[in-house]
Design goal:
- The protein has 1280 residues and is an alpha+beta fold.
- It has 39 helices and 55 strands.
- The strands form nine sheets. Strands 32, 33, 34, 35, 36, 37, 38, 39, 40, 41 and 44 form an eleven-stranded mixed β-sheet that branches. Strands 21-22-23-25-24-29-30-28-27-26 form a ten-stranded antiparallel β-sheet.
């Protein structure tokens, strides 16, 4: 008993005078009871009253009646929650604990309340303790519980109640630390500091009573953080939380954000408005109609997830859906869904669009343009999530406090960090669907949107729209406008828990612990494909049970996989007859409807391989149906590795494992699975460098693998393509093959590319064709040749020996003697024995000319031709059929008709000339030389092959009149030859390089499209027969003796700039000033294609890039060679149908408003509304527009380059883009007419044909004419 008394006495002594108390004091009289209680408590050492500067001033002036108690220390502070106040408190305490009141109102302490707080603080080692309380309101006293503090309790308005007890040692440490000073966020900074050092403990006991000072409803208070009047306070709070997150390693580095790939999957529509609903018969029809009334340029739908409504909501939705198919009404099977679960049902539905946009069942969009604006901003901002702004209103749409909620506190740099301080991100919210499917909503009906927003903000940009897009309608029962304290606490506790999880996730991410392998567009695409294609999902699931054996043979380790599903590839027949009979399974129109595609670029698309070898296995086919050919497409390997660095890309040649040799494709698997790749560090140590591109990469030979291989090791894509061309040229060709036999396996090693080329000499090993026990059903492709042998038969899997496996690979690969021969060729090339400047080896090349393509081609052979071993003549018809050419009842991949007599010709019927020009027409044309028919996508293409000089005779006869001067004809022969040979060289270079970029290149922005058209589409022939290249009509029009003489006189002569054959462009009429290459095509300046004045002596041109100078030039008619109306001279250049154009030097075109509006809408596929202006943005050196801004009442958009402008402003082609605009009859700001005044005909680059004709007529020699237009060029003869 004595011991117990002693313990109690000791405890009482331990608690004595441990606390210094700090109370804000606005009226000492109201604090009387509070002060008396504090005086009576043995725990209190000092009582300090905090008085603001304003109160101090009032006392000094005698305007205050308040007398402060003598036993209390008065402390003057600037504001109650500033840093300065916190430091002042620290200076005035020497007790172990500090009790701070966070309000100026009195507090009624419960029995032994301070003793209890002190006891808990001591026992818990907490840095700060706080307790539940009662609140005195006008209606009476109510309980006011607090919630537990956790890591995610980062809101600056976290409710501790009125009293907090702080361990003074932490306050002293805070004062000694380096930190900014804050006017309003001092206490917030202090408590976050404390949270980093010690626990903050919640006492679940009602220890005191406080007075309610904020009588607003919870729905009004929750928006304080976005109220513009509180902006200065919020800025400080944001600074504090950001600093705290930095200290705990939980900030988001927005500079490392991932950029969403909006093309990663195909969708049935571009956007979906998602509306979860339960029992909203009063509002649901308004919400749905608001969504369906959106005006967009894209296809969209509305998905309403009706969560088993029990009122008339379901019937209302059914009635609307019956009238408008865009409404998708889903009643989920599950009955346990919250709002988040309903969102997941909507977004995982196949009908969900690329972007999922929120609309609550109570609310409305502000205008019919909301959806268009949101989708536009995704592309404009490169964001994965967009959040707009909304206005609080009632059902009469009258604004309610606080009005517009725009979350202006958000910044691109720090918004994701500040998001952890606030309780919401705004509305409407919109998401990029594939990422949303990956993240998913928690299945709750509160905070689900905040949870998803935080997850997005961790790795992706959240874009903002600060204009009003959305109306949030408040009505009784539909909102949190007046929540109980219990409901508020539950909500806050859950959001704090979400923040706790997010802080943890961000900390792991910053520490490199987070697994982000699945967080990419390719993985999402793969996962989604398996979700929607059941049989393929089963194939990949079965792959887990596939057996693999390791076979060791010396240093070489190989693997064998038993994979029965691969019989479709291993046993595939690839002869021409079989291929011609089957539909191509890589062509889009033949694929299963479940098979998704992911666009890689303009040429290739990515598919999940339905018969996998590896856990991730992709097939990457060319969009067009063209034969397997690496030369044309090698550069795609680097583009694939850039886009997907975690993949290994491989290529099977037409007779080297490709089961679809008729359709160009690559394949890709997850990296690190192949023996060749895993053993590469060892193998590459013993390699020999055969070709070295200094500082950019090497071709190396490797003998240490099962078969000899070559590798291109580089960090530079362009150098890699050049090195591949060298290697390609050294590989042996086998009879009848279209390319050297090879497999290619490529992967990334950091910033380096490793491309291993495995030359082949055999398609399949002998054991493949053997019978009985000798047979091994192995058909080696790139993976097999890399040491990973796939067999579909269990007996082969079980019985194959290491020696057999190596033998199979060696039988198909090259021998050591083959390797030595290839290596010697490469060394010779490296030594420079083959001249890089030996254009066409001094011999006249042949040219292949694409004449016509179509599903059906009729032609006649006007003499004996050889085809398929038979002599043929007379009328013929071929048709495209099942991916092949159908001729006389038989299908062929390609047909070649070779003339058997020197003058044998063929005639093609219905050849279109002047495609898309105003003189477009069809006619029968006759040609000399070989006729080759090939499959091009879904058509048959007719190609004429003939010697270059014969081609030129026809071209110049088509381009020029027979009456042209001899010097003009010679000049044209040289530039036509130069241009042609340049194209042939470029095509041959492309066949062993980066592949084709399609028929145009472009730069696309949200408000601009700059597109240039060139001759890059010709991948199966050198040039086409129309004005797109050079007008070629064969012998349809007889070659005049003058043309033949001009071609002969200049035979082999071309324009050269250094060692480069000049890309000698020409056009009809330059308008007095020639244009420069970069303003019409790619942004590359060619030194021989600079702007010159087309006049005698070439006077200096005004700066026609300046608008005023260009307008003066175009509206006048300056003297120049091409400024002529001489019909004799014009007839030299213009054929009959060209002479239909008369006003080419200066011309005028007029459009009415309706004509121009309709024309532009049709050409650009955009609705501009009324056209208000055509504004020059940029002009070239000739005054030609290369960028033009179209200003409409609905939108503005900039287009370029010159041909795109000409196409957009004419049914065919505007004469040129050198024009100025007059707006006429303007009514209410809308011109009723537009008058275009222009100069010249064509792009204006290089030789001006009419100017050259005038020069020829005036006695200029052909070389003078050429050097007038092609500055710095030289005329050289490259063959005899």
């Amino acid at each position: 008993m004595q011991y117990l008394k002693h313990s109690l006495q000791q405890t009482e002594n331990d608690m004595r005078e441990k606390i210094d108390c700090f109370l804000p004091c606005s009226d000492a009289d109201t604090l009387g009871k509070t002060l008396q209680t504090l005086r009576e408590s043995k725990t209190i050492q000092h009582i300090n009253l905090l008085v603001t500067d304003a109160q101090e001033c009032a006392e000094e002036n005698g305007s205050s009646d308040t007398m402060l108690p003598a036993d209390c220390t008065k402390i003057t502070v600037d504001s109650l929650l500033s840093t300065k106040t916190m430091l002042t408190i620290e200076e005035h305490t020497d007790a172990e604990y500090v009790l701070i009141s966070l309000k100026t109102t009195p507090v009624d302490l419960g029995l032994n309340a301070l003793e209890r707080m002190l006891r808990v603080a001591t026992d818990s080692c907490a840095g700060l303790v706080y307790a539940d309380s009662y609140v005195k309101k006008e209606s009476g006293v109510e309980r006011h519980p607090a919630i537990d503090y956790q890591t995610g309790s980062l809101r600056d308005d976290f409710d501790f109640g009125q009293l907090v007890l702080i361990r003074s040692s932490l306050l002293h440490a805070y004062a000694a630390s380096k930190r900014p000073e804050y006017n309003w966020a001092g206490f917030y900074d202090l408590r976050l500091y404390i949270s980093r050092k010690a626990p903050l403990f919640h006492i679940n006991e009602y220890l005191y009573t406080q007075v309610e000072t904020d009588n607003r409803k919870s729905g009004e208070r929750q928006f304080d953080y976005v109220n513009p009047r509180n902006r200065e306070v919020q800025v400080e709070m944001e600074q504090v939380v950001t600093r705290h997150l930095e200290k705990i390693g939980a900030t988001v580095d927005t500079s490392s954000y991932l950029k969403p790939d909006f093309s990663e999957q195909d969708f049935a529509c571009e956007a979906t408005v998602v509306i979860p609903v339960y029992n909203r018969e009063r509002t649901i029809a308004d919400a749905v109609h608001s969504a369906l009334e959106q005006k967009t340029t894209f296809k969209y739908n509305v998905i309403v997830v009706d969560n088993h409504s029990t009122d008339s909501t379901t019937q209302i939705l059914s009635d609307i859906a019956a009238k408008d198919q865009r409404l998708v009404h889903i009643i989920p099977e599950r009955t346990d869904l919250g709002i988040g679960g309903c969102w997941n049902v909507a977004t995982t539905d196949q009908r969900c669009g690329r972007f999922a946009v929120q609309l609550d069942s109570d609310d409305l969009y502000s205008s019919p343009k909301t959806l268009q604006r949101i989708v536009d901003e995704f592309h404009k901002q490169g964001a994965a999530m967009i959040v707009g702004s909304y206005r609080m209103c009632n059902f009469k749409l009258e604004t309610l406090p606080p009005g517009l909620i725009d979350h202006a506190e958000w910044t691109d740099h720090n918004g994701p960090n500040n998001a952890l301080r606030i309780n919401g991100l705004g509305a409407p919210r919109a998401f990029f669907t594939p990422i949303l499917r990956q993240i998913q909503f928690p299945n709750t009906s509160y905070g689900e949107d905040y949870a998803v927003g935080l997850a997005f903000s961790r790795k992706y940009r959240i874009g903002r729209i600060y204009d009003e897009l959305y109306l949030c309608r408040r009505w009784d029962g539909n909102s949190d406008s007046a929540l109980s304290i219990e409901r508020q606490n539950a909500n806050n506790l859950y959001k704090d828990r979400l923040r706790t999880l997010e802080v943890s996730a961000r900390q792991q991410l910053s520490q490199g612990k987070a697994d982000i392998s699945a967080d990419n567009s390719l993985q999402r695409f793969f996962n989604r494909q398996l979700e929607v294609w059941e049989s393929v999902r089963e194939h990949y699931h079965d792959l887990r049970n596939v057996k693999i054996r390791e076979l060791a043979s010396g240093e070489q380790t190989m693997k064998v996989q038993f994979n029965p599903a691969r019989i479709v590839s291993t046993g595939a027949a690839i002869d021409k007859k079989t291929i011609a009979k089957r539909p191509c399974f890589l062509c889009e129109h033949n694929r299963p409807k479940e098979q998704m595609q992911k666009q890689v670029d303009k040429n290739f698309t990515l598919l999940v391989n339905p018969f996998p070898i590896m856990p991730q296995h992709f097939t990457i086919p060319l969009r067009a149906h063209r034969p397997q050919s690496i030369g044309l497409n090698y550069g795609e390997i680097y583009r694939l590795l850039n886009a997907y660095p975690s993949l290994t890309v491989f290529y099977n040649g037409p007779k080297c494992g490709a089961s679809a040799p008729d359709h160009m494709h690559f394949q890709a698997i997850c990296s690190g699975m192949l023996p060749l790749q895993t053993e590469w560090p060892r193998l590459s140590r013993d390699c020999e460098v055969l070709v070295k591109k200094e500082g950019h990469g090497d071709i190396v030979g490797v003998r240490g693998f099962a078969v000899p291989v070559f590798a291109i090791c580089t960090s530079d894509q362009s150098a890699g393509e050049q090195l591949f061309r060298v290697l390609y040229s050294a590989l042996p060709m086998h009879g009848g093959d279209t390319e050297p036999m090879m497999n290619i396996v490529a992967w990334r090693d950091g910033s380096d590319y490793q491309v291993v080329v495995i030359p082949r000499r055999k398609h399949r090993p002998d054991c493949y064709f053997a019978e009985g026990e000798e047979q091994r059903l192995v058909s080696p492709g790139a993976l097999d040749m890399s040491g990973f042998i796939v067999t579909p038969r269990q007996t082969d899997f079980e019985q194959i020996t290491p020696e057999e496996a190596v033998s199979i690979i060696q039988e198909c690969g090259i021998t050591k003697a083959d390797y030595d021969e290839i290596a010697d060729k490469l060394r010779t090339i490296a030594a420079g024995n083959a001249s890089a400047n030996d254009h066409f080896a001094g011999k006249q090349p042949n040219v292949s000319v694409g004449i016509v393509s179509g599903a059906r081609i009729a032609f006649s052979l006007n003499g004996p031709y050889m085809a398929k071993g038979n002599l043929i003549d007379g009328e013929q018809v071929v048709e495209f059929s099942e991916g092949a050419i159908l001729w006389n009842g038989t299908q062929y991949r390609e047909l070649t008709f070779i003339p058997q007599q020197q003058n044998a010709s063929f005639s093609l019927h219905d050849v279109t000339i002047g495609v898309n020009f105003h003189w477009e027409r069809q006619e029968t044309q006759t040609f000399l030389g070989t006729l080759r028919l090939v499959v091009d996508s879904d058509k048959v293409c007719a190609i004429n092959e003939l010697p270059v000089e014969s081609y030129l005779e026809s071209v110049i006869s088509s381009e020029m009149s027979a009456t042209s001067s001899e010097e003009l004809l010679k000049a044209h022969a040289v530039i036509s030859r130069s241009w042609l040979l340049s194209q042939i060289e470029q095509r041959r270079e492309h066949q062993t390089s980066a592949g084709q970029n399609g028929f145009f290149s472009f730069i696309r922005k949200d408000d601009e499209l700059v597109k240039w058209y060139d001759r890059e589409d010709h991948t199966i022939f050198d040039v086409c027969a129309d004005d797109h290249c050079q007008r070629y009509q064969g012998i349809t029009k007889a070659t005049s003796p003058k043309v033949a003489q001009a071609v002969l006189a200049t035979r082999g002569q071309i324009l050269m700039s250094g060692d480069e054959i000049c890309d000698a462009r020409f056009s009809k009429c330059c308008g007095g000033a020639t244009e420069e290459f970069q303003y019409c095509w790619e942004n590359i300046r060619k030194p021989y294609l600079v702007s010159v004045a087309d006049a005698k002596g070439q006077p200096a041109l005004p700066d026609l890039t300046v608008e005023a100078e260009a307008e003066r030039w175009i509206r006048t008619s300056p003297e120049s060679f091409c400024n002529t109306t001489d019909k004799t001279i014009l007839s030299e250049v213009l054929n009959d149908y060209d002479q239909e154009t008369t006003d080419f030097y200066r011309w005028h075109v007029e459009y009415t408003q309706e004509q121009l509006k309709s024309l532009i809408a049709e050409k650009l596929k955009m609705d501009f509304g009324d056209i208000l202006d055509l504004q020059p943005v940029e002009r070239g050196r000739s005054g030609r527009l290369c960028r033009l801004k179209i200003v409409g009442s609905e939108r503005s958009f900039t287009i370029g380059k010159e041909l795109e402008i000409r196409r957009a402003l004419s049914e065919t082609h505007l004469y040129s883009s050198a024009f100025v605009v007059d707006k006429l009859d303007v009514k209410d700001g809308v011109p009723q007419k537009f008058r275009l005044t222009g100069a010249g005909w064509g792009h204006g680059v290089g030789m001006c044909q009419i100017g050259a004709a005038v020069m020829g007529a005036n006695g200029y020699s052909y070389d003078s004419i050429l050097l007038h237009y092609y500055k710095g060029a030289e005329i050289k003869k490259i063959y005899k």
